[in-house]
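Q: For a teaching session next week I want to show students how multiple molecules come together into a single three-dimensional assembly. I've collected the sequence lines for a complex. Could you give me the predicted structure tokens for the whole thing so I can convert them for display?
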Amino acid sequence: MLLYIQYIIAGRQLEMNAIALIDGNNFYASCEQSINPYLRNKPLVILSNNDGCIIARSAEARILKIRMGEPYFKIKERLNKLGVIVLSSNYSLYGDMSKRLMNLLKKNCEKIEIYSIDEAFISIHRPHNKDLSPWARKLRTLIYQNLGLTITIGIAENKLRAKLANKLAKRINYSAGIFDLGITNDKNSYLKEINVDNIWGIGTQTSRWLRSKGIKNAKELKDMNQNELKKKLGVVGQRIQLELKGYQCLPIEEKRNQKKEIRVSRSFSKPITKLEELKHALAIYTIRASEKMRAQNLQASSITIFTRTSHYSKFNYQKSVYKKLVEATNDTNIILKIVIELSKEIYHPEYKLTKAGVLMQELSEFTYFQKSILNYSSKNKLDKERKLIQTIDSLNNKFKNEVITWGIAKKNQSWGMNRKLLSGTSITDIEKIPTIII
DNA sequence: TCTGGGGTCCTAGGACCC
DNA sequence: TCTGGGGTCCTAGGACCC
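A: Of course. Below is the structure for the complete assembly, covering every listed component.
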């Protein structure tokens, strides 16, 4: 405050930082279109794992009013009739494109927080009231020229308002994918345009409650009674309201916080009823989760496994069990034994189980020497076990497709994941690079 | 027949301790 | 039968995000 007054007295311009939220438009669909010219300018949708529902649509598919989250089996025919191209999701491609995108952004800003596979918050210097549109246009062109991806840029005083600005940029045609809420004079009228359920952090439950109180848009939420909001939504609600008012409550987090858990869970393509099947699935997820931990140099101190019936089933059942480990580990052999033992506790013969998963929790950095006094294994034996796992990881990394794995993972699985419509194109797998015969 | 997966943060309530 | 206040940890579950 003092500083601010000093600036005014000195008659100088107050210089501030602005926050921009950048996201890739129709990201998954655009990645596919970027590497396959045939798909460009065509209606295209991407399916979730298991080819379950629609998770991305190209601009052309949006025009055809195909909805996000729609179950694939329900609109398969309609898509067919409309000539929409359908693809299973190809996460190695999207992950790789994301890395390239973030690297380009990094070179063009002061601070960056990678928020998701297709979104980043960045902090940029704003000289007093200066329009940042030229900078944004340049960045947008750069990304398009390098990656063939279109981005949207929303700029404002803080993260939540930058999110809103990004929404506005998508809505307002003339903005060409850029909107700066920070320099607009009539902020309230823009806030009125955003429905309360489109605000970052307000989901279906909360928006239902807000609407019952007569709060319909961002402006009304900003001005609503602070105590009532706090009583119902706690600090989360308070933060949202303060950010709507223009305060900075949410910092840009440049350093990725250390992960708190690693989860591998999946729906089955068909429901399962046998304990053996459940064990089998959990074993495969455990192998994967342990690999993930090792790749990130992490170890878990506790694990949870769970299973459940379909949300859509009349007979609801779900159960999880938690186990604290004697000492932190990322060794597949150790965890596998525990998980298989625990799986009996969550199994129930009378229910059709449709999903299961394992969670590795209380993660810490992997340290080889910190061994519990309760563990009597000799150093030599531990060395051998360590080497074996390392060898397995490196062979699998080199040859892909799990050339080596645990016996239990190799059994036939009738419930495995569906991914029938994979594009087959890849920039991360040398085998899949298209061959051109002249 | 078929409705994703992987995360985070927050709160409430119980158990336990001094 | 009466039997405090405050702290911490664990666990479950709700809500939200992309």
